[in-house]
Design brief:
Helices cover 32% and strands 17% of the residues. It contains 14 helices and 17 strands. The strands form four sheets. Strands 1, 2, 3, 4, 5, 15, 16 and 17 form an eight-stranded mixed beta sheet that branches. A four-stranded parallel beta sheet has the order 11-12-13-14. Strands 6-9-10 form a three-stranded parallel beta sheet. α8 packs antiparallel against α12, α12 crosses α13 and α13 crosses α14. It is globular and about 65 Å long.
């Protein structure tokens, strides 16, 4: 894989060990020397040393004492917190398909390792997980980081509208209440999975589907809050977003895309502390493959693809299919609105966190999508520093894990990326990953 987590970098770590390190030391203390630190809080970058011990950040200052510590000289390198994606789908993607048959332990673990290789160390799987994940302590082990790969948080099984879903679909196990009185029993089932959030779909998909009845999603929000669980809504239209915010939803899990947001909604989102996950790449991927976007031949993109997907995307009949989709112009406008709305929402002081919907289909590329999302946030008008905070500190807040993760601050878990160039001068420099640290330990490179 492109220079992700280079084995040579790990050798460099050993080569740069302080001569004062004692061979019989019982500590795993490490000092990253002379780093350009972007800590995720929004503070300006600073030149510092970072001390790490027992998996945590124990000191951040200039010229730290290196006694009995392994020293890694990172002059010229930039360190940022590991990225966090608050909207992904795990396990159902394989090759050019996304379905229930793909949902295996092996596939879940493989995808979490891919996120890790791309510097994403926490992901929230948004409502399409299956019982397999919660058997034999698998979920607990993934959530706690005991297994290799990104830590996995899950919304379990989400809530959608009644309707026929083909057996074997990635969404064939969703809860589909026909009336509000059915919600409490379904919520009790969901609670047994110990979800991090509750996912609901409130969208008619351009008039092609029934929209969830308001009384039902009000009941879902009410029952979830009884269990201290946040509710994340799949949303598209401004009118739906307005109603959901009034009904105390916690997070809008996609961009508002049918029109521009207005001051009234911004005010209500702030009053009700509603967060926003724009998933800009979802909307870009929906239209970009009609041609050959500039990033199609970027190794950083290609190496993230499932087998066969690149050939599918390059096929002329596939590109024609995208262009001739009856909803193509609607999707083009959706991306335009999404970019404008995320800027307005972020500048209004509303909590915006990174999420991509990666893994929901072969075209929503796990790992790469998160870095492309940063580029689109900057394209929308946010600064690289703001985009990085959205992908780290803000995402951790939305996930409810910000006491442990999301920023490089004393006492937190040592999850970080070493970059070969400064992303504040070009956000695409997040591609130049030279090291990934999870819980104070360097992650080894995945073989192709």
């Amino acid at each position: 894989m492109h220079n992700l987590v280079l084995f040579a970098f790990l050798l460099l770590c050993l080569a740069c060990t302080s001569p004062r390190q004692k061979s019989n030391t019982s500590t795993d203390k490490m000092i990253l020397r002379n780093v350009n630190l972007i800590d995720g809080t929004g503070r300006v970058a600073q030149q510092v040393d970072i001390a790490i011990e027992n998996g945590r950040l124990i000191a951040i200052d200039s010229r730290l004492d290196t006694t009995d510590a392994q020293v890694v000289n990172l002059s010229g390198k930039t360190v940022i917190p590991a990225l966090i994606s608050t909207h992904v789908h795990i396990g159902t993607l394989k090759g050019t398909t996304a379905n229930a048959a793909n949902y295996t332990r092996e596939n879940i673990l493989s995808q979490l390792r891919k996120y890790q290789q791309y510097g994403i160390l926490q992901v929230l799987s948004m409502g399409t997980d299956r019982p397999l994940l919660f058997e034999n302590q698998l979920y607990d082990s993934l959530k706690s980081g005991q297994l290799e790969g990104a830590r996995l948080f899950s919304a379990g099984i989400g809530f959608n509208v009644p309707g026929s879903t083909p057996p074997g679909s990635s969404m064939d196990l969703l809860y589909r209440p026909t009336k509000a009185s059915e919600v409490p029993a379904l919520m009790n089932k969901l609670i047994t999975y110990k979800p991090q959030a509750v996912k609901i779909w409130v969208d008619d998909f351009g008039g092609t589907a029934k929209k969830m009845d308001r009384t039902i999603y009000q009941a879902i929000i009410h029952e979830a809050h009884k269990h201290q669980l946040p509710v994340v809504a799949h949303v598209y239209n401004l009118a739906d977003a307005r109603q959901l915010v009034a009904d105390r939803v916690d997070v809008l899990g996609h961009s508002i895309r049918d029109q521009l947001v207005d001051d009234d909604l911004l005010k209500q989102m702030k009053v009700n502390n509603v967060a926003y996950i724009p998933t800009l790449t979802l909307d870009e991927f929906a239209v970009a493959y009609a041609a050959n976007p500039t990033w199609m031949n970027d190794p950083f993109f290609k190496q993230a693809l499932e087998p066969g997907v690149y050939e599918m995307l390059c096929a002329s009949d596939y590109q024609t299919q995208v262009k001739e989709d009856p909803q193509y112009q609607r999707k083009v406008l959706a991306l335009k609105h999404a970019l404008a709305n995320v800027l307005r929402i972020a500048k209004a002081g509303i909590l915006v966190g990174l999420g991509t919907d990666s893994g929901a289909s072969p075209t929503r590329v796990q790992g790469y999508a998160e870095h492309r999302e940063l580029e689109l946030l900057v394209k929308a008008g946010l600064s690289p520093l703001e985009a990085i905070s959205i992908a780290t500190q803000n995402a951790a807040k939305i996930l409810g894990i910000d006491r442990e993760y999301g920023t490089i601050e004393k006492g937190k878990v040592a999850d970080l990326l070493v970059l070969g160039a400064n992303p504040l001068t070009d956000i695409k420099n997040t591609h130049k990953i030279e090291g990934v640290m999870k819980g104070g330990k360097w992650v080894t490179k995945e073989s192709n």
